[in-house]
Amino acid sequence: MTTTNPTTSETVTARAAARFISDYACRLLECGATCVRIEKNVNRIARTWHLTAAMTITPAHISLTVSDTGGSDTFTLITAVSHTSVSYDMNTSLSRLSWHIADNATDPARATAMLHEITNRPRPDKWKTLPLVALANASFCRLFGGDATAMATVFAATTAGYALKLILSEAGMDLRPTLILCAFVSSVLGATDGLFSLGSTPDIAIATSILYLVPGIPFLNGFSDMIAGHYTCSFSRLAGAAILTCCLSAGLCGGMLLMGAGMF
Amino acid sequence: MITEFLQDALFAAIAAIGFAAISDPPRKAYLYCATIAAAGHSVRFLLMHADTAGMHIVTASALAALITGTMAVLLSTRAGMPAETFLFPALLPMIPGIYAYKTFGGLILCLMHADESSFPHYFYLFAHNGMTCLFILLGMTVGATVPIFLLKRISFRATRDAAHHE
Question: What was the ipTM of the complex prediction?
Fold first, then answer.
């Protein structure tokens, strides 16, 4: 069964729409969008093509059913989600694409080309973010009351830890042992403040040296999905974030044990 | 206190910019991110300060996140981006990271000190830090997302081409 779009006279099949929408929804989930935003954008696209879309969103797969308004023809697709890093730039571009489709009645073929154009854009070099991340964590140290010496120690600890994270990520290592190692390295360097009796706030230096590893965005996305009623995705995201926090705690504990520093 | 307030705003802005960079935001988002992070974190500083409201960190974080979320939604149309693009990175300086890892640290110490005299102390540390972390995150997320749902007409239309805005 095909649906004619009255503005363009082009035929939009449920199969073609489903293939595009599932690809689109997966890319949106991969770049860190909340479930409510994915739903809104997908429903907007489906309405444009006079179709209805129903989704089940889980972190590993998106199960999508597209049907025409009469319900006489349905097409179901289950698509695997890859694990990539958060990109709000892609999130913004994909949201704009949904409005472009709605306002211009873009057909699935053209929409797919535009989607690939967005997803094939090269990602910025992560190494360029290294000084910004180190500066951010040093600022974090200041927010917790650290002095200039503690800030400098945290800057150095974060530079080393984040550089190691980038190297291990590029080498394809799983994120969990990566966080353990990076937290260990950062906490050992963060503890040098106390080891050499530098400054007046060595405890703040070690406490804040690993904060750049805390998975803040997954926690926020998880609770946001919970508020919107997407409990499966919410609990999955929160469980993933809790496991990552456990890993960095393990690395921190290891570093503190080695340096003879206490957590409490 | 004014100096502390301004310092808090400045360092929160720097922290938000740095952590936002990890999430690959559009270039324009950095300015909005820094602005609302500075506003939100400094409001939380004022609310928690003993000389002003002296609020608990959970309540102060929720109210600060509400202000941050409202600013983000109102700015999202001007920015042409979803509010979360600069809202979530702006909330990162308020994420209770220390409470989070102290929760797991307390859990590990519970296992290492199983005797009856010291176990309750470490269990208290685990529970106190865990509950504080959980409720700060919940309060922040509720505070930040309430404006998104209340101002639906703005928040889910921000990326629409300006020519089609009603």
Answer: 0.88
